[in-house]
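Q: Sequence in, structure out?
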Amino acid sequence: MKEVAILLLVALMLNGCGSTVASVPTASGGIWSSDMFGGEGLASGLSFVTQFTVGTNGAITVSTFQLLTQTAGGCFPVTGPRPTGTLLANFNSADQVVPPFSFNFTVTSSGNTLTLTGTSMTGTLNTTNNTLSNGVITGTWTLTGGTSCNTNGTFTMTQSTSG
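A: Exactly. Output:
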């Protein structure tokens, strides 16, 4: 009977190895650049760089945000807006991002609102300093507001290797 109990305990331990998932909001680390595909007119070909940290509740605190592409009379000023959002990620025992995750990023300025919603994320958690590295987030974006600023598309946000 004792052997059966030990065997059952070992089986349970082995079953759990490598499959533990913990929800961990993290500092993002580095600078993120975003390429946005789709859109029309003044709201096409947008791209930006940003740097942010993520609090324990998942709230994003943006320290830097700058549009890299902007046409005259565009939907946003090049600098100035302070985006808001959330990022919550789950990590497996190898510290790799695994589903489910949540990413929302909103920029509001001049009566226009740009919303990015993540659909996929990859990256690795550094448990020593609780930062994410090699992060890539893909998803969809929508822009609402003025007549020339109502459109949508897809995006890819890539984290730099240094920051």
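The domain at 21-159 is CATH 2.40.128.30 (Lipocalin).
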